[in-house]
């Protein structure tokens, strides 16, 4: 069985569109997202244009800030601060990865936590860990929405996350835990990976290794969410051996699974940022 992320994402986009309309009618404010793109990484160019298009579709204003590959650290930090102080901008994201000479961590820490729609600022990471209201990183949030909208219960399930990145593995494990799953995190040093993945009723593949998850590593009837985005011979493939695994489990395709959800969660976070700033419901 297949979970159609593209279609679920389209449904959510419609819901967000009406919420944006309602917010804008009520407050006379159009939510605004600034996307900072440094250099010309081809994948980043595609991601940024997908985000702009999605904003446009739901009535969010997007400001693309294109900066040269060679921009000094201080100048980029100044740009972020400028956007922190721009009232028409409610969300700010810095498209990653940044060129090597730039300190990603320091730049993310310059973003005002109240505008950090990617949820990468340490203040928001901390809020997530302790279970406070915060901006949840888009991909992990998309993973949870995909599972829930497929009517798969999380509570009480055995969930296994393969991968421990700050952007996907760690936050998705925290969210599953918050939803009362029993969570195991596996990584490159994990011994006997198949033994552990075979126990998973919910399996999150976020290792960044093409076709790592084979059918013999998956429990019958499990829900398998493939977060991998790997380019192999110019083709996009996930971390899951889709053809094999699809026969015995419920699985998300790549492309058209988690990816479209990631973009839609950014819209959700941007609307949330505008609401918090304009209506001030959050302390
Ligand atoms: C799809 C991303 C790695 C590093 C930086 C739809 C996206 C991708 C796939 C997309 C991603 C991945 C994004 C599909 C944004 C997800 O149909 O499968 C959309 O635009 N993404 C990013 O901004 O930075 C990344 C992955």
Structure overview:
- The chain has 283 residues and is of the alpha/beta class.
- It has 2 domains: 28-113, Leucine Dehydrogenase, chain A, domain 1 (Rossmann fold, 3-Layer(aba) Sandwich); 138-258, Rossmann fold, CATH 3.40.50.720.
- It is built from 10 helices and 10 strands.
- The chain has helices at 5-27, 42-58, 73-84, 104-110, 122-130, 138-149, 169-178, 193-197, 242-245, 258-279; strands at residues 32-38, 61-67, 91-94, 158-162, 182-186, 202-205, 223-226, 230-232, 235-237, 250-251.
- The strands form 3 sheets. A 5-stranded parallel beta sheet has the order 5-4-6-7-10. Strands 2-1-3 form a 3-stranded parallel beta sheet, sandwiched between helices. A two-stranded antiparallel sheet has the order 8-9.
- α6 (138-149) packs across α10.
- The longest helix is centred in the first third of the chain and has 23 residues, at 5-27.
- The N and C termini lie far apart (43 Å).
- 43% of the residues are buried.
- The model has no long low-confidence stretch (mean pLDDT 97).
- It binds ligand BQF.
- The site of ligand BQF has 11 residues, from α2 and α10.
């Amino acid at each position: 069985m297949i979970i159609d992320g593209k279609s679920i994402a389209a449904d959510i986009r419609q819901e967000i569109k009406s919420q944006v309309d309602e917010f804008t009618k009520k407050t006379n404010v159009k939510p605004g997202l600034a996307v900072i793109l440094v250099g010309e990484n081809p994948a980043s160019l595609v991601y940024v244009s997908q985000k702009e298009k999605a904003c446009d579709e739901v009535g969010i204003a997007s400001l693309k800030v294109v900066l040269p590959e060679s921009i000094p650290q201080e100048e980029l930090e100044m740009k972020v601060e400028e956007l922190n102080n721009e009232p028409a901008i409610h969300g700010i994201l810095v498209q990653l990865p940044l060129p090597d000479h730039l300190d990603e961590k320091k730049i993310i820490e310059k973003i005002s936590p109240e505008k950090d729609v990617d949820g990468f600022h340490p203040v928001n990471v901390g809020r997530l860990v302790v279970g406070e209201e915060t901006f949840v990183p888009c991909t992990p949030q998309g993973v949870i929405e995909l599972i829930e909208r497929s009517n798969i219960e999380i509570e009480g399930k055995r969930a296994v996350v393969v991968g421990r990145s700050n952007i996907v593995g760690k936050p998705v494990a925290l969210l599953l835990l918050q939803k009362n799953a029993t969570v195991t995190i596996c990584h490159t040093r994990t011994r006997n990976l198949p033994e552990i993945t075979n126990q998973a009723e919910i399996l999150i593949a976020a290792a960044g290794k093409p076709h790592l998850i084979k059918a013999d590593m998956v429990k019958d009837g499990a829900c398998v969410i493939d977060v991998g985005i790997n380019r192999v011979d110019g083709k996009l493939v996930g971390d899951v051996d889709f053809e094999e695994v699809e026969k015995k489990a419920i699985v998300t395709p790549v492309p058209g699974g988690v990816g479209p959800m990631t973009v839609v969660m950014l819209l959700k976070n941007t609307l949330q940022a505008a609401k918090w700033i304009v209506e001030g419901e959050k302390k």
